[in-house]
Write a structure and sequence with these properties.
Layout (H helix, E strand, L loop, with lengths): L14 E2 H15 L1 H11 L3 H4 L5 E2 L1 H16 L13 H9 L3 H4 L2 H6 L4 H6 L1 H5 L6 E9 L2 E8 L8 H13 L10 E6 L11 E6 L3 H25 L4 H65 L3 H4 L2 H9 L9 E13 L2 H6 L3 H21 L3 E6 L2 E6 L7 H28 L7 E16 L4 E6 L1 H12 L5 E4 H5 L9 E9 L8 E8 L6
Helix pairs in contact: 1-2, 1-5, 2-4, 5-10, 11-12, 16-17
Length: 527
Amino acid sequence: MADAEPEVFLKAPHFSTKGIGAFIRFLDNREGASVIDGALEDAGLPRDYVMAEDLWVSSEWQLRFQRALAGRLYQLAELPEHDHPFWQLWREGGQSSLSREAVGPLFDVVRTLGSPGLAYRQMPTLMSLYNRTAQLSTESISSSTHRITLSHVDATQSIDAALYWNLLGTLERLPMIWGLPDAQIDVEESPFDPKQGSQRLVLKVRHTNPESIRWGLRMMGTLVGGVLGALAATMAHQVLVTVLGACLGSLAVLWFMEIRWRARAELELAEEGRQLESLIAAQDGRYQELWEEERKLRRSLLASQKLSGYLPADLVDEILENPEMETTLGGRRTDAAVLFADLVGFTPRTERRSPEDVVDELNLYFSYIDPAFHNNRGVIDKRMGDGVMAVFVPERDETPESVRLRAVLCGLEILRAVSACNRTLEARGGEPLAARVGIAAGPLVQGTMGSSVKFEYTVIGDVVNTAARLEGQASANHIVVSADVFDCLSDGGAIPGLPVDRRLVRVKGKAEPIEVVEILPLDGVPA
């Protein structure tokens, strides 16, 4: 696995390797590097990638790694409940991630914020260094108490157990950066509350406030100085007035100094916050640009494949996030229309021409008829020499009647396109072409068919066989549709075509005859 190119969808910019690397080092020390190497291999990205300082991994990779670790450490087939000892790894990892060794240069950046209170207020910015799947907000209740709210960027999802415990451990141990005891955490809302489960996580954090310590020390020092001054003044027989004056003067000076100190701290915090955000943007901006460019390229590739035509836009977006779905979707039942188009007598025609001429003629033919599929939102499923199979799947909230109408309109447009192609062929001195079209509709299964060696996204069902048989029943430059397709068209079949025959036909593979309607376009295609 380490020698293979990592799967693209595992590198989506959801979690920074700045945090992942520190967690991996913690796991190496606790569980052994060989165990963690096995879990990394199972998850799909090599160690040197996840230990980098400037890369990202996706939510899918995180899930794979969690499952791999649960299997290797606890022999679990699935991830356990949030209170299982397994998740304490993330809590301990969050605590260990705040050491100078784990944080690296950012340790001093955080320490310059001056106190835990200021750091907790900067948590939303600090969070963006590591995680883009969740958003965090901080409310300062007092200088030593803060309410921190964490929610998923996708409002339909809730916080998972790994993020819950990792954040808990991080918030607990944060004061350690300043040599202070752990913070006390009260869970006010949680996705794991059995009685009142919430989509978000709300924590109340209480910590020792070094600002209060500094205030107390300054007050004690100033008062001591005032008392010493008062004693000296007593020796000069100014006892009461001097003591009162010294104490009041000391408190006034202390109050003024405290206001200046707090104002300066606020200004420094704002400036440090801006610098930190600038650092984040500079460090991660290029990665985001590269990732977006990669997504655009993949979207272009996916759009050029028939898969994107079969699936609704929201499902295509899911596949862009997780391309593995493209090969694991399986079957999806749908009601669709299938169209087969073929050229009449094309096999004997090829016997009189060179292969190069045949290819040129086919490419000319396809260049004329392919816009018909695009105009009527049909998916070209496959080409079979001069034959084409197309599928019309329902779009969001589309009725079966509308799907069938699109298929019939496409067939008529194909025949008009053949007429236009013939004018070009005749101008070249070539012989005209004649096409025929068959259309059927009904329940189908669409999905990935084949094996890991060779697979394709297509449709399977009796409707496909029926449409292929009906194409063979059509006369040159005519369409044959099943009667149920024709009868469901609006206004009794008000289309730019003339029904010329309605009959029962027997086709191979069908025990009973099929009622069909044969249609001729109205705009001059020769019969």
